[in-house]
Structures are given as structure tokens and as C-alpha cells.
Amino acid sequence: MTFDYRLKKEKDFNLVFNKGKRLFSSCMTVVYFPSKELKAGFAVSKKHGGSVKRNRIKRLLRESFRSFLPDFGQNFFFVFIPKVQNEYTLKQFKESMGYIFKKGGFLK
RNA sequence: UAAGUCGGUUAUACGGUCGCGGGGGCAGGGAGAGCCUGUCAAUGAGGAAAGUCCGAGCGUUUUAGAAACAGGGUGCCGGAGAAAUCCCGGUGAAGGUGACUUUAAGGAAAGUGCAACAGAAAAUAACCGCCGAUUAUUCGGUAAGGAUGAAAAGGCGCGGUAAGAGCGCACCGCCCUUGCGGUAACGCGAGGGGCUGUGUAAACCCCACCCGACGCAAGAUUGACAAAUCGUUUCACAAGGGAGUUUCACCGAAACGGUUUAACAAAUAUCGCUGGGGGAUAUUGGUAACAAUAUUCGUAGAUAAAUGACCGUACACGACAGAACUCGGCUUACAGACCGUCUUAAAAA
RNA sequence: GCGGGUGUAAUUCAAUGGUAGAAUUCCAGCCUUCCAAGCUGGCAGCGUGGGUCCGAUUCCCAUCACCCGCU
Question: How many CB atoms lie within 10 A of CB A27?
Fold first, then answer.
């Protein structure tokens, strides 16, 4: 996942949070809003733990998002918000991300 | 051998595939610019990166200048260091059988305050007691003994006395003088004074010394808010403003008019932003902190913020934990492994 | 990243270094035909670890948690 696919500016985050729609799965919440480019941001709160744990979660989310990257039909802004759990695994995130993308019909 | 004490080292390793950050080389595109694309081989978190408890660099504020006050800090001695209250070595005190550990450790005769409960009394000591005198219930002397308390008016013994008392003496403690050792704190001894002065300064305080404030979200560049600059007028060495307060030093102040600035403008677009009191090894000096010399290494620089996924091999099956301007110290968290110092106890020689 | 502040009963707050207190809540009893209200009584505690002190909620140091401000 290259740098260009990341959501960075606070304006964009506010846009997504205020006007976007939400989808849920067992371990995360996804907020999305249609746009010209495909971008994804990750919001991990301090409830998950220290900076090591939070970085670990972001890496796993980025990795799982990367695996879906070639299959998108339309362009959206996404914000992924994981829920607090004891353990975080890549499998879990991939499965629930796939479930959500099917539900929303984002993939080809 | 067991139990401990103090100190140090290490912080999964190796290989393959995909992916990420910032640089570099090469090739191509492009009028041009690391502007875009491709590719190559390197490189990319810690001992605490953490807490932000101290200090320094660096930046802004009048190049932070003087005096007094306020506020804050420090407080045995010597050393190291750019500096620091926490580093190193010692002294005293406290704790431990010991190795060793801890230590904000000046002043209570400058002044003020506080000392609950208990107790006669918590600081100008006198309730009971003891002794003497006597109008027989008062006066005087005294501080040995007395339910307390954290602390009770130098301790203990002998002499002494009406009873007692440093009243006298020995030892200890205290104070003064002095000899020796030590750079010093201080230690060891000698002589004298006879001794009234409770504790608390991590209560206010006094004394000595030190400190301006704010912090990289500091701040600078381009653009904007607006600013800069020029001219005129008015006031004038005054007022007011500019650094915690006051006094001084330093900076003149206000109003009006003109000139300059095409577009793009962002919670970092660019700079600050990483070579620095750097690391490693060896030698020398020093008990040590550390210093000097030589050789060698080239070592993250992001900005919604880079280290992940999968596979294989090995074992101890991987703890605490993620740079955000930099560095020195401290504190706190931490699986396991290894190395060394010394102590105590038991046994053997 | 930097700079501040606060931790006391289940909750909201007090307390000069000397026995931690008030209101609400909760529990038990009384009252009532029953409930509420009222009355009486009770339970429950200084974030954690050191130090100073005879003695710390209070003073000092460290640590943990929470909150606020600065672009």
C-alpha cells in the first residue's frame, strides 16, 4: 500500500465522519464516502494500548487493505476503526474486511 | 555446597518471496526543476526511544544590562564535567552477623509558631513526696523517688548533706584551648571548664551561594490578515508603552497622506532536521567519575507519522516496549541467559 | 511533542500535622392495612510506594490514573 492511497488531511477525515455511511462487523467499524480517489485512513484510539500495540494494529489493517487493493470497482474514502480486543490477527481483519466489502458491494 | 551482596554484558539469529520510509547510482521522458516513470544494490527504533525529574546547546523576547524587593532552587568535604540537587571518592549518622546499603547532613544563643492524648509539669518547672521551722496549717529549702509520654531538665557510681543538689570526685557525654594525622569534612590524643540553655527548620524563618521568562506546536521563509518604507503635522526629553514589581539604563511617541505587493495558500509547502560535549577498540594517567593519544566506523529523519505478512532452519520459544530538535544525568518498566567481585554458614584438606 | 492541574465512603464535596466529617445511596428496625415520606441505628475510606517526624489525608520524593491548555 503506497503513500498515495492514504487518507491524511483532517478536512477529509471530517468529511467522511460527518457525511459518510457506516458498516459494521465483529471486530471493526468502517465509515465510507464516495470520492474521486481511493484512499483509506485508520483511527486507532488510546484504549487499545501503548504506541507499540497501536502501531501493530495499523500495520495489520494496512496489510489486509493492501490485499484487496486490485479488486476495487469504484473509488471511496474509507476510515477503519477497530474494536478493542485481547488479540489481533491478520486473518481476523482480512475476513471481516472481505465481509464488509461484499456487504457494501465495493468490489468488482 | 547453600544463602546472599555489589557490578557488568546481551536484548532471538540466519536465509528466501511480497510490501513500506528517506537518500544514492543508472536508464528513459520532459523546455526546465529529484518534476515524472522504471530499475539496481545498500540502508532504516531503544537500553530504557518511556516518565519529563534536573541541566546544557539552539530559538524568540530590548544582543538580558545595574540596584533593591518578590519568587524559586541548593546547603558535610574534595574531585570530575560544557553544565546540573541525583555522577565519582571520602567523612559523620542510621540499618544489617557480614559483604554492603541508605543519607535535602548549615543555623534552635536573631525572632515567631507548634508539641494532640496522657501527665504535677511540654519550658521562667514544682502536684505528691523528702527535710527544717511552726501559731498546726502555713512558711522556707530541695529536686533523690513517683501511674504518663516520642521527649522530663546531662548519665552512672562514690562521697557529701537536715533533706538534697556538678555541691565535690572518677568514667562517659558536652563546651573551650591545644598537639599529631589528613588538601578538607573529620579522626586520634592531651589539658582545662565544672555544665544555664527540650524537640521540631522535609514549620515560618535566618545565613551563604545560584537563577530573567517562554519553549522546536520555539522560531524563520513565500502568500494572506496586513506589513514595510517615505513624507507632512503635532507633542517633547515629560507622560504613556516596551522584561515579575520599583528605581535606573536602553528604545522617542501619536495622527494623516502617499508608494510597494498577478495567480496558486496548505492545522509543515520549504527551512529548523541531524556529524554530535558521536560510537567502537587499544594504550597511558587516575581508587573512580573522567581525561589524553592512536586506529577505525559513517550510523533513522517521518509529519494521520516508515520495520509488516508468509515460508524454512536452530534454540533459551523471544520480556519491557516504538525516534519526533539534539545531547548529559536521574527515575521507572523488564522474560531469559552469561561473566565477575566479595560476605556469611556448614563440611573437607 | 511541550506546559499545567486533580486524586478522600458507592456518588458529590469538607477537614490547622494529633479519633477522618456532611449530604445522598445501601442495609436493619420503628411507623403504616401496604407503599412513599418521616424517625432511630449501622456498613462502607485518604490512588500506590518510600522518606522526614514521637505521629502524616496534610510536608518532601518517586510512581500510577484521570483531566485541561498550546497548532
Answer: 16
What is the CATH topology of the domain spanning A3-104? Answer: Ribosomal Protein S5; domain 2 (3.30.230)
Q: Where are the domains of chain A?
A: 3-104
CA–C1' gap, A41 and B33, in angstroms: 32
For chain A, residues with pLDDT lower than 50 are 1
Please give the ipTM for the structure prediction.
0.77
A102 touches strand B (CB under 7 A): no
